[in-house]
Write a structure and sequence with these properties.
Number of strands: 22
Number of helices: 52
Helix content: 40-55%
Shape: elongated
Structural class: alpha/beta
Radius of gyration: 47 Å
Length: about 1450
Amino acid sequence: MLSRSEKVHPDEVDVCQLGQIGLSNLLSNLRRCSLKSWIKTNIKKKECCFYIPTEREGFCKCGYPKDHHEGEALKPERFLDQAWEGQNHMREVPTDAFGDIDFGGLGQNMGKYVRVSSDTPSDDLYHLMTEHWKLRPPNLLISVTGGAKNFYMKTHLKEKFRRGLIKVAHTTGAWIITGGTHTGVMKHVGMAVRDYTLSSSSIRGEIVAIGVATWGTVHKRTSLIHPEGCFPAHYWLDEQTQGKLSCLDSNHSHFLLVDDGTHGQYGAEIDLRSRLEKHISELQLGNRESHVKIPVVCVVLDGGQGTLNTIYNAMLNGTPCVVLEGSGRMADVIAQVAGKPVSRVTLALIQRQMKRFFGHEYESFSEIKVIEWAKKIQDIIRMPHLLTVFRMDEDKNSDVDVAILQAFMKASRSDERGGHQGWERQLELAVAWNRVDIAESEIFTEESQWKSSDLHEAMFSALVGHKSEFVRLLLENGVSIPQFLGAEEKLGDLYTAMPSCFFLRKLVKRLQSDKGGHRGGGGVGVGVNSPGGGVPRKRIPLAAVGEVVRQLLGSFTRPIYTPPLSHEASKQAEENPSNTVKDPGRDLFLWAILQNNAELAQIAWEQCRDSIAAALAASKILKKLAAESEDDNEDDANDMRELANHYERQAIGVFSECHSWDDERAERLLIRMSPSWGRTTCLRLALEAGDKSFVAHSGVQALLTQIWCGELAVDNPQWKLLLCMLFFPLIYTGFITYRRDEDIEREAMRNEEMLALESVTGSSVDARLTPFQEPGDGKQLAPLSWLGRLGGFYTAPQVKFFWNIASYFGFLWLFSIVLMIDFQPTPSWREWLLYVWLISLVFEEIRQLFDDPDGFGFRRKSKMYIKDLWNMLDVLSILLFIAGLACRWTTRAFYAGKVMLCIDFIIFCLRLMAIFTISRTLGPKIIIVKRMMMDLFFFMFLLSIWVIAYGVAKQGILIQNEDRLDWIVRGAVYEPYLIIFGNVPTNIDNAEFDMSTCTVNGTDPLRPKCPVLNDDHSPAFPEWLTIIMLCVYLLFANILLLNLLIAIFNYTFQEVQDNTDAIWKFQRYELIKEYHSRPAAPPPFILLSHVFLLFRRLVMRQKPQKHKQFREDLDKYHKTEEEELMSWEAFMKDNYVATQRQERSESMERRIQETADRVGSMAEVLEREQDKASMAKRLVQLEEQVSQSTKALKWIMDTLKAQGYQTKEEPPSMSRSTESDGDDECDGEVEKRQYHFYARSFLYPGTSKKRFPVPEEKVPWEVDFTPYIAEAYSAEPVTKAEELTLDNYRNPGGRTGIRGRGTLQCLGPNPILDPVLTHWQDKDHSVLQFLAVWNEAEGCWSLPGGALKTGEPLPGRLKKLLGDKLYQRIKAKLGDGSRHNTVYEGYADDPRNTDSAWVETTVLNIHLDSAGSLMNELNRAVAASQLLSERIQWKGVSSKTPVHTYQREALRLVAKLHQTPF
């Protein structure tokens, strides 16, 4: 094993080392080799290749010492007579620092790092992080920026920031990107990650914190360097000796160390970080096709000039920013002016705020820098949709995580392309983030109107992502499960996207076996990984799912999903639709159950109508899966069993709710055949699943008791039944009650009640209708006929049972008489009767084996028969009887046959216990006896070890070479066994030895062999040893083992006693079913019934009758009744679910949680109040100091006046100095008109030329702006005459920050024409469209305008786009007096404008007839342009259409002209 201090490098691992490391480390090293190979090919570093000494002796301009440069850098001939420039005098070489980084400490913090060139492509970095570092693609990118130096942040705000940042990263799967060093805001992020790691049991990799730092500023970076990579590199924080450098933060998980070839110069990472964030923001969200890009949010704390630039550039790129008020400096400056009108955010106001928050640092700022910052802050304020300020005193942003997510939602809603698609994109983001709270507050509002189809994609994402809370939210907001799963393809997609689980592996095996055989059947992909894991899967056929589900449910069910049918089969299915049933609620529930997802399964179960059958089917499936998967994953198997028990409890809960309302309906639910679950019944599912608690429910037992009693009433005493069995005419005297009699009495009482109600209300009510009885079937119940009473009595299972008991006792009495009294060589009539009786029992067992009313099939039926212990006793007793009978007919084995029959009699007597399992008293005790017999079997195994050990040792010590097998067994087994029961042997004690009781040589077969004797005929064995052995044997066998057996029996009794009632009730069903299907006549008269059944089956070709009492097909014969029953069950299920939720809300745990939350909120409020109190105290002190200062100044003024000093101005009032008044004074004279904005952008378009920053209030020429110095720029060379006349031209819109011609054609106004070609999209004139051109550079649409040529009424660009023919037709339209209007003439806010040259536009609206030939040609031109670089398209005249700069106002005027909303 490698020591901690060693570094493992892939190239240095030899064969011996591989053997020591082991297989896991071998695979790890192979991955490292792959990483090293990829990094050496794609990742570079930078190094200086031109050494120029500086004032520091021996150091280059790059900051590195001379010995850091190679020989070529010291003598570069190609750089002679050149000044050192960083970009030109650097070269890229393969990087030499990458691998794992170990920060040491108790937490064993490990991360990954790589040194990269500042010019590394972003896609290579993203590939490194996702493919080699195995990071999951982010659902959100959080870029944290701010102060790089340590700064103070209030404790409450600090806790809010840390908790909120980690919460949003953890819940959304976000990446956090920072500067990566152990200072400033990066340190706060690292501490947040550390707190989460220490307080959470989750693995550390769940929070991805990526540090992008400058390589040349990292302290102790030499420990990270190794050409082959470090696995790991050991890095320790050393802040005391770092100087101007910075240490890496130990709590970040990944580091990109950006190398620009310099040392000690910060900022090399800014450009690469910006490019990386932009690249990630352009990637699609998630692994499947999506129109949503990965969102990026910038979070700002503290900060200075660099932070302001970061915010400004981010917002220009459309990235929303969250500024934390109270974090200090630039963040607080922006927070103070945010929300104010731009006209009030003046240079003076910003200067005051910067003085306030920067303190003494403000004095080092130059005037030009402050002006530039003021301009940027004003531009930031102009984009309120991208700016969110988190304030501690606002309830709506009480958490930072909510503020971060709401910031992006606000920016997304303001997107010009918004509309309903914008809402759908926001919903998809919320699902990806798994933030139900954001969806509830920001998406599902009163403004948004959702259809079920609009939410289907989000529903699919939530289901596949196992986001149960989102699934419930979507269902509450209108998702219809039947519509969502209306097409089988959607359900197939769900199974294809199912994550890896035992069912999926089982399904794959099934498909692969089918594919390998002759059936074929579309397998799935190679792996069973979850989506996004690599290889895409093939589509999973639902027919294969149905086959596996049928195997899990049982062969007695029909397939849930059938394979695609042929034409004839589809016709047959239409004629018999009950064979195939579509149930979307069942499909979704089954999908969730098969992957053992408890949360989704619960939600889906609540959508099922057939909820009891669904819960019992889930219990059966889960128990079957748990039994099969126990060897693979015991934890998953336990989870499945727990979930199975949960759904058994759910079934009990719903059935209890139903039974409490209407017991008759509830009992029908048990025997109703469910079309959704393979046309089986709830009762059958519960029995197959082994749900003893459900079967033991009083309602289920009431049904079983009703079936047990048959046509007889349940409350008939048993003694009355026995009397009627002996004297059957009593059944006609009313001595016993029939169920029909009770129904007639109940109907009569109902009729009386209805008549009484009719007499009171005066309305007629049909009192004859019974529950589930159609109005047309309201017939009076007639009493049973005499034949019906006789048949109903003798066919009742209870009466059959009593007759069979009497018959079985008669059989045992006859058997015992034959064995003890009448067993002659020639059989007597009693013995012949016994044989006939046994034949009837044999035929009855055969009938039970082949009787299959439930449709199990002979194979499954035979397995069920064999698993029953009582059936095995029956078979054993019959076989033993046949064997004894065969011996009885031979003279030589006559006596042996009798012995065998005697033993068989014991087995027949034991079989008598099965009869009494129906007894409520004896039944549970028989179950306990069966369990104890299992315990006794294992105990006998332990006991036999001691018996054999002692018996063999004793026999070997006492007897010399005993060769008689019977006496060996007697001495080694029989005698030690008897010792346990107190039969102490006498042959181990010399004092009790008697020669007459044994034989010396073993010649007497009736006496044991004597022990080894001495010459005096005394025993030679060591008496002390045999006595000690006996004592030890008695100690363990008699005391230890027997008491252990008693303890085991006691434990079994206590364990089973609590469940015996449920077990007995569960097993009672089989006995009731057996006697329900049994012929009425008892043995031996049952032979007549067997002959009749055989005749009806073979001669009359009649199918065996099914148990109508155990199954009822309402779907086939009573559609309306089926629908009513399902609706009632769904209503009862809703009641049960509501009751459960209420109980959970009122539970003690919930109350404790709510109390804890309230206490936390109160503590937070109190903490805020304490902060306010301390602030108020400081304000009071400040007021006192100001008051003293005012008095002192007044005294000074009075003194000066007394000495004769005077002033021309009145002294200012000491009481009026608030900031708001100052703002009013400064802003009172500012004009309220809007100034050009795009013409003041910092960079002139298409160049790197910077404009002089012009704040909003300094735009007008008449406003004094002394520092204003605009640089001259012209794209084309200008003459000296033009240069001298630059100041003669002044932009009518005001200052722009740059002079010259720029990219325009001439100084002064540059006229252009913007034609707006419009037409109505429909006949109702509801949508007005205009012809737009896509501007790829700016990512928006623009008008097809441009400069006019001499003599042309339309711009040449229009001719270029449409062609000469269309151009001439539009030109002719202008000349023939057709409808066209000049919408606007004047100055245009164009980014190309300068102080000396500007654009003036004329917006001309040309309205076209939608049905004319010109429109047809235009539409063809639009279609033909879609493949060109400049494509044209008809777009709606709307504020949602993204258009070029000033042209939005032109479209608004066009909409106003045509009187349509904009």
